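Regression check, adenosine monophosphate case 450:
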Amino acid sequence: MAIQRPKGTQDHLPEGSPKLSLDTRASAFVHVQDVARRVLERAGARFIATPLFEEAELVRRGVGGSTDIVRKEMFTVFYFGDHGGYILRPEGTASIVRAYLQNGLKQLPAPLKLWTHGPMFRAENVQKGRLRQFHQVDYEVLGSTDPLVDAEAIRLMVEVVQALGLRGVRVKLGSIGDPADRDAYNAYLRTLFGAHVDRLSDDSKDRLERNPMRILDSKSAGDQALIGELGVRPMLDFLGDEARANFEAVQAYLSAWNVDFDIDPSIVRGLDYYRRTAWELHHEGVGAKSALGGGGRYDGLAEQLGGAAVPGIGWAFGIERLLLAMEAEGVAVPAAPGPELYVVALDEAYVPQAAAVAMTARQWARSEFAYRAQKPGNAFRDGERRGARLVALIGSDEAAQGTLSIKDLASGVQTNLPTADLAAFLHEQGLHDQGRQPQAALSPTAQENA
Ligand code: AMP
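Current build output:
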């Protein structure tokens, strides 16, 4: 058998591939990134890209030593002598905060909105919607504690999934308070669970020491049964006045904007640097336990990484999970477009000419050519199979006169025109870059020269 891809990874495949589903269709994957880009950049977010691997210490401090991610799921790469090894990044937030600190992004106007997308790596038990290499869209805002920033971040996350056409999405909103509130809650949990240590899973015994809130997040059925029996009070009962006022302000904004949400007291983010607003985005099609995405405020993270204090908030959703939800809802995703112009020679002698016409036409439109001569009937069928809009033929007459015979596969109309008029013809058909809506973006240099 030929070599197979590693377990827990996916190939993103072109249109027409056998056994294609939405979560493996490359055009759907790119569509999610494009929609996210449009929504987030309109809101002022700037794109940032960070390395796929980072110092292990960044992940340890940035994600937390008590999390499953750090304890069991890190992919370690490279081992140079006594260097402790790098980690393939399991999420984007720690890297973005590191990049913010390291590159002096504090000098940019605050709050600074950043976004990225890319692969993340976690050595998890593989199942549907749970991969070892998956992809996230990530939005982070640095430099403000204003609840308006929190509410806007949640709204933008909802806007992205709505722009993708998803309907059955719910925001579950919670707050984990300020550090003093969380200390009080952890003390309460320690006493409560401390009386039942023998019933806790080994992981949760450890969590009881380090960070009792994480017990509530446990995947162990035994832990969850105990949590149910004990009738654990929610974190929300422990919010101090400031955190409560902040939580209410976030809710007031969301309500004013008609962004639906449910208060979910079970939402916990156990890490020390998390603060106040925390939420998850759920979808019926992906199952109650599988969030499409999540977010939270992390005002203590920059200091945790050894930098100056910078408040921050962010969210991420999994592109594959989103595509599974879209598939479950039957949301249509535009297919990758075929060529606007497909140029075919009717005789091998004219193949180079067909190639030259197609290559010239690429200044204005998506253009391909046939590498071998074809008969007209085959050329049209071939063009159709490739999703072409126009098929241009070059036979002996066209070659002698410097013309093209063009068939519009949509309308069936045939035209003969001088090759020199091709740009004008494409324009008339709405297939020329300059005639398109919206217009292709100008590069910065083109703008300067304009
Ligand atoms: P997290 O960083 O754990 O809050 O995850 C944010 C989102 O990333 C989740 O809601 C999922 O949509 C996605 N995600 C996390 N882990 C995986 C995984 N192993 N496979 C696929 N998607 C994932």
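Comparison notes: The chain has 16 helices and 16 strands. The radius of gyration is 28 Å. No diff flagged against the previous build.
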